[in-house]
Amino acid sequence: MEVLKNAIHFVLDLGAPVFVPLIMIIVGLIVRMKFRDAFSSALTLGLAFIGMNMVVGFMMDSISPAAQEFVKNSGINLNAIDGGWTPMSTLAWAWPLAFLMFPIQIIINLIMLALKQTNTLNVDLWNVWGKIFTAVLVIGVSGNIPLAFLIAAIQVVLELKMGDVNQKQIQKLTQIPGVTCTHGMTLFNVFLYPINRLLDYIPFLNKHIDANWLKQKIGIFAENHVMGFIIGVLIGTFAQYPPQKILILGVQGAAALTLFPMVARLFMEALAPLSDSISEFMKQKYSDRQLYIGLDWPFMAGCNELWVAMIIWVPITLLWAVILPGNNILPFGGIINLSLAVPALIVTGGNLLRMIVLGVLTTPVFLYVATFFAPAITNLAKDTHVINVKDGQFLSWSSIELPDFRYIFAQASNIVHGEFLGLALAIGWLGLFYWYYKGMQKRADQLSTELEGTSHHMSL
């Protein structure tokens, strides 16, 4: 058991930029790619991960201090520290049983593939920490370890089903075939979907408005670098920066929005050969099946709507933190809310205006769930001694991934204490998941015809 634990930690310590490409080389060789082609694609994928991490880090380092300054100027006092995702993953791996989640995810995926319950092979094994974190939060609420593993296993299954049903929508957004997103954050789609359906009945919001639409309507002001500059200047102004710093933040925002699509092209360059080889292999072996590769979110980063929406949400998030009664968390590490942006992008099909509206309406969910879990996360930090939290302060994550799922199913685990409200909420959430799945399945059928027509036209 100790050997398995050490082996898993050794592999995961390589990080996604090394670990995921290694998996991709193995997959490429299985589907009969030449080693040189598999190696080249995998190395390009590693470069893409490194590049995206650098650009995201650059944007975070630019915007987070401005956000902090805005909060400081407001005079509010919130005692839950927002550490972002990095300390959460550290705490997750500090759990003594964490290493067991790795084989659990692999076994569930293989069984579902064999039984034809999914067409997605999830190679995003580095993000297994998300399932561990869910289990840790469940234990923090109910103290029940078997239920913690059960709920984490349910998350694994639902991520794979999400990967299946979202693939065509993601392919339309990214133009990368045969790839889908299996990150747990996509489970927030279930919460967003009913709201997005309601927006269908609101005039103006029932039109598709994306970055390309904006370029047609307002010209240069919708160009990436110009939008980034304008948004950066606005955030610097909200932070009451001096003129020099406002202009610097504007140029930094312009640089970030310009670099994101450039780096995203590396994902297309890396994944296209692998996708073609997998498709050819599956046609030869299983003429009735198409296999999708499940990845982390960064291959979707070329969608400009993601970044415009997230930056616009920064002052909105801070405003909600200030005015929400009962909120106890000061947004900082999670101020760039990818946990909301990626689901909103998929649910709306890249409708920028709807993404912004969904962000305004649902940001309080993230803040309240972060506040709810703050005591459990803080206790875990103190018990494991891996993160020092001062007395009188709490540690949490303002943009905690899949907040609705984690809150509801953690509450459902209280059934061991004779409380049934959480279980009722969990059943209701699964009902919404079924509605979402069926709705997106119908959407996928429509997109399949559209994408096949586009592919045929390009081949001509």
Automatic annotation (TrEMBL):
The lineage of its organism: Bacteria, Bacillati, Bacillota, Bacilli, Bacillales. This is PTS galactitol transporter subunit IIC. InterPro entries: EIIC-GAT (IPR013853), PTS_EIIC_2 (IPR013014), PTS_sugar-sp_permease (IPR004703). The chain crosses the membrane at residues 6-31, 38-60, 93-115, 135-156, 176-199, 220-240, 246-268, 306-323, 329-348, 355-377, 420-437. It is found in: Cell membrane. Residues 8-460 form the PTS EIIC type-2 domain. PROSITE patterns: PTS_EIIC_TYPE_2. It is a multi-pass membrane protein. Keywords: Cell membrane, Membrane, Phosphotransferase system, Sugar transport, Transmembrane, Transmembrane helix, Transport.
